[in-house]
Structures are given as structure tokens and as C-alpha cells.
Amino acid sequence: MVLFKKRIFLISISLILAAVLAFLQYQYFHKMTESDKKIQVIAAFSDIKAGEKIDSKLGVKLIPQSAYVKDMYLLSEKPTGYAKVDIAAGSYVMKSMVSKDNVPVLKEGMRRVTISVNLESSLAGKIKPGDLVDVGWAPKSDEKGENGAVIANKVEIYDIVNKSGGDIKKADKNNQYDTDSLLPAAVTLIVTPEQAIAIKEYEAKGSLFLMGY
Q1: Do both 68 and 128 map to the same domain?
Q2: Which of 20, 86, 94, 156 could form a disulfide with 190 if both were Cys (CB 3.0 to 4.6 A apart)?
């Protein structure tokens, strides 16, 4: 009788262990199957140059769900905007590669030059990269016989930073007292080499200011 009970006990334990093992195997293979599910993400179907609008050059790729990262666009997200960098055909379009605003591009033969600005000379700070502006010049009071002039017409703004060198659009707006981080201190422009030299020469003998359209 005792031997019979021991056998029943061992059989029960074996059945329980078998059930647990089967459950663990099911969970493992179920997760493997889930991770191998295919999802649709956005990719470039043709080359996209930096600064180009991406909307008409997008396609779809199927990838395993396990290969998905948060920086990818799902099909349902419908990205739109401009490429920050060159994106090769067939590459995944990542969120970090796209800007909603026009992206300034330094074309061949052009240069970047930076000028100091304040709230007044930068159109009350109502400017952003990609905007076109004229660069004006006002002479110092001791510059006798000098009249103000327009130094450059319709030049593109490449970047705007505050006095700490931080990007204005990325400044921390949670701190209402940190107004300095929101004020433009320097603007980088895309110009020809000749315009860059003229701008710096005029900056040394007067004040530069931006004129908007």
C-alpha cells in the first residue's frame, strides 16, 4: 500500500513537472512567434538629399517586430517634412532624420558666417533656420560721411543660438525666468565668400541687423 502511494506521488510530481515544462515551452515559442511578426515601417524608395521634402519619396518595408526601434516610423505615422541628412534609397527613414521645418543646406561654393545679434537686430527673435533675410548695416556715430547700406540680399539663415551657444528652438521653456536661453545672440547665415568678407568688415565698423520679408 505504501509503495503504491509512493508511485502515485511520483507520477503526480512527474505530471506536474511535465505540465510546467510544456507551459514554459509554450510561452517561449509564443514569444518567439510574436517577435517574428512582420510590421510595416517607412523607408525611402529613392535617394533623398538633405533639405529635400520627403513626402513623395517614401515607401514601406516589412521587418520583424523584434527589429523595430522607436526612432523608426510606423506606416500609420505618415511622416512629412524635410530631410536633415542624405537618405539613401532603401534606407529606413528615422525620426531623427526629419525636420518639420525647411532645412537649410550649404550648397557648393557657399559659406557660413556668424554675426552677433540681439532682440532688436534679429527681428524681435521672430526668425528661424531657413528664413530669407536681408543684412543691413548702420555705421557707428564716429563714422563721418558713412551712410547705412544693405550688405546682402535674400540670404538664408542656417542657425540661431543663444548666448550660451544653445539652439533657441531647443531651449528649456519650463523655466519662465530663464529668458536668456530664449533670446538670440548669434545668427549663422549662408552666403558667398565675398558676402562673408563684406559682412565681417562692416560688422567691425558698425552694427548689423536683419530685415525680414
Answers
A1: no
A2: 156
**Domain containing 49 — which CATH number?**
3.90.1210.10
Q: Which domain holds residue 68?
A: 38-99
Q: Is residue 10 part of a domain?
A: no
pLDDT in tens, the chain (213 residues): 656 566 666 667 777 777 777 777 767 666 665 556 889 999 999 999 988 999 999 999 999 988 999 999 999 998 999 998 899 999 999 999 998 888 898 889 999 999 999 999 999 989 998 899 999 999 987 666 678 999 999 999 999 998 888 877 554 555 555 566 778 999 999 999 999 999 999 999 999 999 999
If we measure between CA atoms, which residue out of 80, 99, 83 comes closest to residue 167? 99
145: left (phi over 0), alpha (psi -120 to 50) or beta: left
Closest CA to 95 of 109, 79, 106, 108: 79
Which segments of 125-186 does DSSP mark as H helices, in order? none
One domain, residues 123 and 74: no
pTM of the model: 0.62
Nine cell digits for residue 87: 537618405
Check whether residue 168 and residue 126 sit in a common domain: yes
Contact status, residue 83 vs residue 48, Cβ threshold 8 Å: yes
